[in-house]
Every structure is written in C-alpha cells, then in structure tokens.
C-alpha cells in the first residue's frame, strides 16, 4: 500500500489532546500505519515530569462515561483515573423558576455519569503512553502548508528557522483551528457568536459537592459547576464555567477575590454552601464554530478544528473523541484493504458515519444555550414544564442521560481483525 517515496503514511498537525489521542489509537488499532505528529511541544522522556502534582488553578475537561470507555479500549484509563473526579449526579436548574431535573449514575447502573480531569494530567498520560509507541514526533515544529500529490499530500513543515516537506497519504488537522491552517487549506468555518464570554476558574465551597455537577441557567447566561479533586472522597473544590456579558466580565475581573465570590454566590445560589475561594480566572468569547465539510481529498479536520461548542454542556471533547475513533476505524479498514488513507472514499465514509452524532450533539448543545437564554414568560413556562417533565418521565430522562453520558451517538469499538461487515452487524 505504502509507496517507498513516502516519508510517512499519516501526518497529524497538532499533538494536543485530539492529535495525541488519534496517534495513540492508531498505534493500538492499526500499528502498520506510519504516523508522524507535528507539534510545538517536544515529546521526550526528559521533557515529561516524573511525578504529577495537582494544581488548584489547573484547567480541566469533563469526560463523559462514553469517553472513559474509549480510554479503556486504548489502555489509558487506569492511569487517567488516578486523578479523575467522578460525576455521580447531575442537577439541572433554571434560576428563579421551579423547573429542575436530576440525574443519578446509580439509576443507570453506572459508577459515574462522567469525570473531571485536569488537562495537564490527561495530556501527561497520553504523552507517557506515546513514548512506548513507534509514533514519530516532529517538534517543536508546525505545519504551514499542504499540496496534493499523486501519492497523497506534500506537507510543508517549519522547524526552527528551516522548512522541509513531509510526503504522506493524508493530513489530519488537529491544531484546534487557531493557527489558521484550516483556512489556509481552503476550509470555510461558520461562526455564530453567543454575545457572551466564558470565565473559567476553580472554586472552593463550604459544603461538599458530593460528586454533583450543576448546570444552572440564569437570566445572565448558563453556569456549570463540576466536582473536582479527590476521586474517592467528596471534597469542596469544583471547576466553574461562568457565562458573562462583556460588561459583566469586565466588572467581575476588576473585583477582589472576596467580591468575586459574593458576586458568584448571588448568581449561583447556596446549593453547595458559601463560596470561600476562587482561583485564577481565564476567559474567552463564546462562539459556535462549525465546518459543514470537514474532509477533502488528502485532508481531514478533527477536534476543535472541526467544531467549537458552548462549554456549559461539556460536549466538545467528548464529541471529538467519538469522531476520532470513527476515523481510526476507517483508516484501519483502508490500510487492510490497500486503499490510500487520504482517498475521498475513506474520508467521506468517516464523515458519513460521524455526521449524525455531530449534528445531534451540536443541536443539543446549542438548543440548551438558546432555550435557557430566553427570559420571556411563555418560554420560561414551557422550559419549566420541560425540566419537570424530564425529572418525571423515565423515557425522556433516559434520553437526556444518554446525551450527558456521551453514549447516545457512540459507535461500538472495533478490534483489530474485525471486518467492516462484522462491525455493521455488531452495531445493529
């Protein structure tokens, strides 16, 4: 399948969470595919810390239950779980209204609905696992361009002050979409601003979170409070996503820590007692970014390069992870059949399989934000009834739980050697 003139089979632009997960999955499922990752951060034993010390101000990611299953398949969950705080309960409420719904992992015979993991710890687990693979790492470096060739693609890489070409079958863009590479390659992203900002920080409360994640919708925008800290003992630290207008963001950032806590208390309420500490605050404008056509011959967008969702529903990385596993399976089948990895038949099939999950998840996340952002009385009444209905109607509650747990659109794992026909039968 692979021409001798090719330097590698697959080139991944970006070695963050999406790119590193894709590389690791390919090494596990399709080890015959030669993979080169182009990343700004080096991958070497001496570049990785020997131990991990959790930081109060660490940024974190919410992993759905379905994402845990993926990491189990990759042999990564045992290490990730060491610092993964379980979400055993989810409480959704609408400030100033009676409507609320509650989800409990035990009602679905699960240990947890999901988990909260520090980004740095998750990245460290991925890097350590990648050291034991045959993945090639070009770093620090960046992809600055690509040209199609008869064999696949010729990718231009800038490393230090020099540029060189990497020839392969396919380029996967996993750099998050901020580098401009997506646009350089001719992909058109549609962006809709929510007119708000996300303030991200960690907080401490006087009462224990009891492993509960709170989704709190207010007239000023949605908020999320996710349990953080020890995986085994319910603590008092949580990760906060606080939606603010431009004016409110400026006001909050100018406040002292004590005043920030008081302002937060007023918006969130007293469900976990008093807010006693707030950590370093990060913020960014909220947008829904989508790319309708994420594949072209020889190139595919994944992760945040393909979509950026509102963070309050915690769907972004989990959606990306399901897409990555779908893509890995298409690459595995193509490699076994001798089909070029960058052919439109391969990438188009990936897009066809991933599209329903992508569309459903984007709509689910966006509709939550827009529905709960309206404060008109008739809309609020319908919304209240909907939350109460979710809490009472078993079928509706199970549907909502499947979305929260990331299992509604997840395709089953396919082990090496399983045929596409067997996979289809298993999926049915």
TrEMBL record:
InterPro entries: FAD-bd, FAD/NAD-bd_sf, UbiH/COQ6, UbiH/COQ6_monooxygenase. GO terms for biological process: ubiquinone biosynthetic process. Gene3D superfamilies: FAD/NAD(P)-binding domain. It is an enzyme of class 1 (oxidoreductase). Signal peptide: none annotated. Residues 7-330 form the FAD-binding domain. Keywords: FAD, Flavoprotein, Monooxygenase, Oxidoreductase. Residues 407-428 are annotated as: Disordered. One of its GO terms (molecular function) is FAD binding. Pfam families: FAD_binding_3 (PF01494). Its cofactor is FAD. Pathway: Cofactor biosynthesis; ubiquinone biosynthesis. Its EC number is 1.14.13.-. Belongs to the UbiH/COQ6 family. This is 2-octaprenyl-6-methoxyphenol hydroxylase. It comes from Marinobacter oulmenensis.
């Amino acid at each position: 399948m692979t021409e001798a003139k090719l330097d590698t089979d697959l080139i991944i632009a970006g070695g963050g969470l999406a790119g590193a997960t894709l590389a690791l999955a390919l090494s596990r499922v399709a080890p015959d595919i030669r993979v080169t990752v182009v990343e700004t951060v080096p991958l070497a034993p001496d570049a990785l810390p020997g131990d991990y010390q959790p930081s109060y101000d660490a940024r974190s990611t919410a992993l759905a239950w379905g994402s845990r299953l993926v990491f189990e398949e990759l042999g990564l969950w045992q290490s990730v779980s060491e610092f993964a705080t379980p979400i055993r309960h989810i409480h959704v409420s609408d400030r100033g209204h009676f409507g609320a719904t509650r989800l409990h992992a035990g009602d679905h015979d699960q240990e947890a609905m999901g988990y909260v993991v520090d980004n740095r710890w998750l990245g460290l687990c991925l890097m350590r696992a990648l050291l034991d693979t045959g993945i090639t790492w070009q770093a620090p470096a960046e992809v600055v361009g690509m040209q199609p060739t008869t064999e696949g693609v010729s990718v231009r890489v800038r490393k230090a002050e020099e540029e060189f070409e990497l020839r392969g079958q396919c380029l996967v863009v996993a750099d998050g979409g901020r580098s401009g590479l997506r646009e350089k390659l001719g992909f058109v992203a549609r962006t809709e601003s929510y007119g708000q900002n996300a303030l991200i920080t960690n907080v401490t409360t006087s009462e224990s979170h009891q492993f509960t994640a709170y989704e709190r919708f207010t007239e000023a925008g949605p908020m999320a409070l996710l349990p953080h800290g020890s995986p085994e003992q319910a603590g008092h630290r949580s990760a906060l996503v606080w939606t603010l207008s431009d004016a409110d963001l400026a006001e909050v950032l100018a406040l002292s820590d004590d005043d920030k806590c008081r302002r937060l208390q007023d918006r969130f309420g007293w469900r976990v007692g008093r807010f006693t500490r707030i950590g370093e605050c990060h913020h960014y404008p909220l947008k829904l970014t989508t790319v309708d056509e994420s594949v072209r011959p020889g190139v595919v967008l994944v992760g945040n390069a393909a979509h950026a969702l509102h963070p309050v529903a915690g769907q972004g990385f989990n959606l990306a992870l399901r897409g990555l596993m779908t893509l890995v399976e298409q690459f595995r089948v193509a490699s076994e059949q001798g089909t070029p990895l960058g052919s439109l038949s391969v990438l188009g099939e990936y897009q066809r399989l991933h599209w329903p999950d992508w569309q459903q998840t984007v709509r689910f996340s966006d509709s939550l934000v827009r529905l709960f952002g309206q404060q008109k009385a008739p809309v609020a009444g319908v919304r209240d009834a909907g939350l109460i209905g979710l809490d009472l109607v078993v079928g509706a509650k199970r549907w909502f739980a499947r979305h929260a747990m990331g299992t509604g659109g997840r395709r089953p794992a396919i082990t090496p050697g399983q045929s596409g026909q067997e996979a289809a039968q298993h999926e049915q």
